[in-house]
Amino acid sequence: MKESKTPFYIESTSYRSFKELCEACREQGKIGMSFGRPGVGKTEASLRFSEWALVEANLAVRNGVPVEPERLVACDTLYYKPGVTVSPQRLKTELGVLRNKFSDIKVRAISWQSPAVWSVALQTPQVKLIIVDEAHRLKYTSLEELRDLQERWNIGIVLIGDPGMERSLARTFHFADRVRYLEKFEPLVADDLRKYVDKQAELLAVPKPTDEVFQIIAKYSRGNPRVLGHLFAIVQRLLKINDDIVREITVEVAETAREMMLVGLGVIPKAGEQQ
Predict the structure, then answer these.
(1) 73 and 114 in contact (C-beta within 8 Å)?
(2) Between the CA of residue 179 and those of 57, 176, 272, what are the distances in Å?
(3) Is the dihedral angle over the CA atoms 172, 175, 179, 185 positive or is it negative?
(4) Which of 68, 82, 151, 271 is the most exposed place for a label (fewest CB within 10 A)?
(5) Residue range 133-169, pLDDT digits in tens
(6) Angle at 247 between CA 244 and CA 249, to 5 degrees
């Protein structure tokens, strides 16, 4: 599982809405969907909500000693990304294996943390929610298999997909009828974007960008975290190469970084260019 591209995370307005969506689906045992443009932060939000880094660390344990059992005990969400050509049978098998492995490490953590309730934990379902990333890859038969698992396991499911998936799902009548919540994952709003830019400046050990520079960054990125990650990676490189003459993020640095990017070049035209 790939890690975050930045050593910090901005709990944006969209993340808080996504969190509420997941909690509602988990508590009610229903299906929900979150869709948004690529790079807008859907996967990162899913990994954070499920605390998947901690879960994976425990799945990789070989000596039987759980990692941070006090935190793992509170986890009840699976993160699953299907393959590009996943079949219904493969989806069923992979989710079943993942669920069993998760239950094993969860019961081990409970035994380690609270031995007195271990026997009760054996009889209690440890998975209450499954987040399915890249759900637009799933064909109708795989979606039906997912619906069947949701009913038999009595759990909530949140589908993560690209724009347009919500329209495709609307044509799968039997499945669409089971989707209770539909929510769009939006880019960073101005306040969240400002926090992100200021934090990046802090990590680069440079002054906070001026309002003019911030507006340029906002215009080119449109609040897309992936584009921002690309942009600041190039900014860091430019500052390092020119550390003898440049010690802050100037307009020239931001413009140069933008011109060196592949992703985002078509978002906003440069000055003098036509739409």
Answers:
(1) yes
(2) 32, 5, 46
(3) negative
(4) 271
(5) 999 999 999 999 999 999 999 999 999 999 988 888 8
(6) 135
